[in-house]
Design a protein that fits this description.
By secondary structure, the chain is α+β, with helices and mostly antiparallel strands. Among the domains are: 185 residues, tt1808, chain A, CATH 3.90.1570; 162 residues; 329 residues, Vaccinia Virus protein VP39 (Rossmann fold). 41% of the residues lie in helices and 17% in strands.
Length: 1006
Amino acid sequence: MPKTIPKQKAYQKIKKLVERFQEHVEEYKRNNYNEHQTRVDYINPFFKALGWDMDNEQGFAEAYREVIHEDKVKVGSSTKAPDYGFTLFGQRKFFVDAKKPAVNIKGDIAPAYQVRRYGWSAKVPVSIVTDFEEFSIYDCTKKPKPTDKASVSRIKYITYDQYLAEFDFLWDVFAKENLPKGRFDKYVQSDTRKKGTATVDDEFLKSIEQWRTYLATNIALRNKPLNEDEINYAVQKIIDRIIFLRMCEDRGVEQYGNLKKAAEEKDTYGCLFTLFTIADEKYNSGLFDFQEDKITAKLVIDDKVIKSIINDLYYPNCEYEFSVMPADILGSVYERFLGKTIRLTKAHYAKIEEKPEVRKAGGVYYTPKYIVDYIVENTVGKLIEGKTPKQIEKIKICDPACGSGSFLIGAYQYMLEWHLKYYIDNPPKKKKDNPLTPDGNLTTAEKKRILLNNIFGVDIDAQAVEVTKLNLLLKALEGETQASINQQMQLFHERVLPNLGNNIKCGNSLIGPDFYDDQLDLFPDQMKKINAFDWGQGFPDILKQGGFDAVIGNPPYVRIQTIKKIETDYYKSNYNSAVAGNYDMYVLFIEKGFGLLKQHGNFGFILPHKFFQAKYGVGIRKYLSTKNSVYQINDFSTNQIFNTAATYTCLLFLKKQFNSTFNYQKIELGKSVSTALNDVQLVEITSKKLSEDIWNFNTPEKERILEKLKEKKCTLSHFTTKIFKGSSTGNDKIYLLDLQKNYGNTSILYSAYLDKNIEIENELLQLFVSGSDIRRYSINVTTKRLLFPYQEINGKVELIQIEELSKKFPLCADYLVNVRSELQSRKIETSNLNFHKYSAARSLIEYRQEKIIIPDILIENRISIDIEGNLFHGPAIHSIVFNENTIDYDKFYFLGLLNSKVFWFFITCTSTALRGDAYRLIPEFLNPFPLPDTDITKSNNKKIHDQIVKLVDNLLNLNKQLQTTKLETQRQQIQRAIDHSEKKIDELVYELYGLSEEEIKIIENI
């Protein structure tokens, strides 16, 4: 087993290589010194010196080797390979392509294009070409072109005589021991992703979307009887089949150029279809099942459409190298591809639109491979540990929202690797029972057996189901050749691939057939959209055995208010998690997924962690805590996992047994999640910590302080009448105006909507503040004015009807009538009398009261007070209005507490974290704030109360001075006085809560 090499020793090893190469350089540059010799004599020892296990001395299975030699690649009609694939935790990090010293790496176009094409197709950010004499690093994030000069996308070029001078760089970036520390990733991020970057998945997505448009347009034109569903089906099938066969060509399973030959013939689609029927005889995968498919055989498609698609898949039009394209790349492409669908116009023209469910979800959430691998390792991995293949036969793995199949591919890959290692370590006694080929790979039959025995999935989208099958079949074909497939067909007289129709099903995982009991009058199109699924009928044997052993996945993130009422009524009747508010669909999938588990089964999802604290999470929190099912939580805090959609996520692991404790890991903002998952320690927490109440996870030290604060039984809610959210106008460009000049009764203001000045009566204008105007103990002077077409009558604020407005305030009425059409386009119900109302007129009477003003999202407590009760604000601010319980208190006292470090500590421990170290300050997080002893009759309490009030009063005055003072020296003096007063308030608050010096240190380090 290779040992870690110290940096100095590595330096000495490379020094010796340099000296030896220098001695023989002229000899090496002759053509008779070949690439193989260069690898053995120099390149292998070079990377060995950097700590890499070049010879697999650790005895890992192929998939887990640190360095994979000769990743098989087919380029054109010849076979070539990037000589080395360097990996970390089973993931490719970079390729190295070796050349002999006679090759001119600096100037020759071919080696540069070759390695860039490998790297780009595999979505590896950088790769290297070297003959030891030269060492050229390329940015592989940019799409390569055959005509690019060798210098294009070259990040760094080093010659052998510079290795020692550049050793620190080589060690920091490429030494094995430094990769887990994230140094390679930092280098990649700093030297790639420049202008012109085009990732392989983005480019391939553009290609298949273009093919979809070509096919849909032409099929709709030439095949008028086909309806929308049939055209979607046909287009998807043709694209899937072409991609499958083209990938088989590059992997050496099919004869290279078969598709291209079909494109050169007349009746191109007919020739292509002949290839499809041959593939059906060979593969039996369901992908080419023409007994089930009654549509594609009869299609009329113009030759130019098929020719264009196929030619896009061959050199020189195609930069993709399908043999190195990972399954997760294809999955990512298809996941986004499935986000759109073909619609037919009344004239039977095809157009492509985003699917409503994708639009509602705010985008597509494709799970990165490292997340899939971690979830699989911690669910499937724990289940099969220490077992035999015979025992593992019985393990059933399910993704109930499988999408393009990324989790099922990950689980299948894990099972393949496990079986391979097991058979290598435990070879069968009888040769005929050997599940390994002579080359030491799993036989085709064994790969089929594992796939059919262990992998199951469901998705509501029929196209997604077909893509999952396609991706699993491509995974099953990895490592196969024409020879191995022909041998299987001759020996066993069976087709190569399994039909996955019994494993991957189409249906609605959340809705069973009992849905129809109360919906007997549903129209066919409604039934199709609901697509109820009977788990007992779909997987009868598995459900009879108690359920699945592992449920894994990434469920849909869709808010329930976007779902039709007939569905939400069903959820309410059938799910404990559907009890509160505007919940998200993923909470239903948690409950359903856990319910599908057999006893002692493992569950692992990536999903938003909003349910920890959101009101709508009360149902699922109660469900999980009552069952003591939580086994592990990996909290990503505000780190973003998904490239195309902003959401805050976690990994949730459940185990169907009584768990007295669970493991928790929080990855702080800015850390590399892929690295931290394996590095950051898990903390054990008692399951008693979990209930239907908000879930907060803090360090033991913080938790002890929080519990101490909560010993103060009186909370902020005891003193508040209301904490209200500001009103929404529905169109701020119309209602928010900028003051230009005040004439006493009227003002001239700028309207952003009209892009000109207008005149409005002052009686209908209110001072308006935004979140950025609120500072700690001050509010910025603003020229913003809110147009307020409301009036107070008998203690209520009511809209002034347009007729009355025209009489009393004609300037305002004219303006509103002028923008009537825009106001009526808002998503609210209006009439000709009230078209000018706010879209959400909240708490209008409370604006007139003295109130503490708090922006909704803050990175520090920046809170102030509206003493006059004349400031209005929008929904991004909350205001606290106090009740009669504060009669003995000054409001400045509460302002001091809310701006204290203790309050901010409480918020960071209990509120929802957002990007940029920001937190939500909304009623559900403000109300529970525990206040110190509120008995003001006690002399010490009264004394501290009065001191805080005095300091706050001083701070309000100092901040006013700071706003008007222009001299820097005076500003510095005022700021020092502000800092001193704030420090004194914090000291008094610490005293009120009885905090120790050690506790104060923890609070002040937040």
